[in-house]
């Protein structure tokens, strides 16, 4: 990138960063989401610096970019919510025979969603996708030993979260065949 284009980007960044950050913060549910939107907005500006107008027009152009980034963010968020609802429905089917179904299901869902993303991914690959450690290692670009250690830690964290929520995972009599992969993941 030549000096002129770099200078144009830096000038727009320095002049508009606060405005774009405030714009995103007012529209996002969390500061992290707002930071992601701001970062993506300026990434687009960096890639499209030749289209970046001068002066005050740059602010308006960046608002337009931020608006599109926000729309993509919300679409992704909605997709995650739909997948979570599908998972909740699947878990409801699994636990549908218990009188304490909804309370327990809610506790399991909260415990699972409260885990770090990496833990949820590992446990999901085992329980829902039925992958073995070696397959997970290839999929995630990790060694088999790293997967073994991380999976052990993820299982411990989930077990602790479930115990803290009052969910008894040792009650084998309540497990129906479709739940066995979940139990095996634990």
Automatic annotation (TrEMBL):
Lineage: Bacteria, Bacillati, Actinomycetota, Actinomycetes, Streptosporangiales
Domain RNA polymerase sigma factor 70 region 4 type residue range list: 106-158
TM stretches of this protein: none
CDD domains found in the cross-reference section: Sigma70_r4 (cd06171)
InterPro entries per UniProt: RNA_pol_sigma-70-like (IPR039425), RNA_pol_sigma-70_dom (IPR014284), RNA_pol_sigma70_r2 (IPR007627), RNA_pol_sigma70_r4_t2 (IPR013249), RNA_pol_sigma_r2 (IPR013325), RNA_pol_sigma_r3/r4-like (IPR013324), WH-like_DNA-bd_sf (IPR036388)
Keyword Transcription regulation: yes
Alphabetical list of Pfam families matching this protein: Sigma70_r2, Sigma70_r4_2
Domain RNA polymerase sigma-70 region: 13-79
NCBIfam families the record matches: sigma70-ECF
Keywords: DNA-binding, Sigma factor, Transcription, Transcription regulation
Protein name, entry field: RNA polymerase sigma factor
Similarity comment text for this entry: Belongs to the sigma-70 factor family. ECF subfamily.
